[in-house]
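Annotated sample (chain length 74).
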Amino acid sequence: MALRLKLYDPPAEEIDPRQDPDVRVQLRDLLPLVEVAKRMNYVWLKDFLDDEVAISEDLFEVMQAFRGSRPTSA
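Output written by the structure step:
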């Protein structure tokens, strides 16, 4: 008789969506892959659009300044 695999489903209150990252990558490695996936309209990229990523505070500040200073198309 085959053994059945038992899975543990933790209660919702035990699941922490702000867990420490499992894998760290350099931005220089990540951006080209995301750019290609976006340009080629890969469906799997849409699955991750609501995921949060952790960035350094100085990168966040640069991005905020860039967002405020970009010229808009007329």
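Annotation: The radius of gyration is 19 Å.
Annotation: The helical segments are 27-39, 43-46, 57-69.
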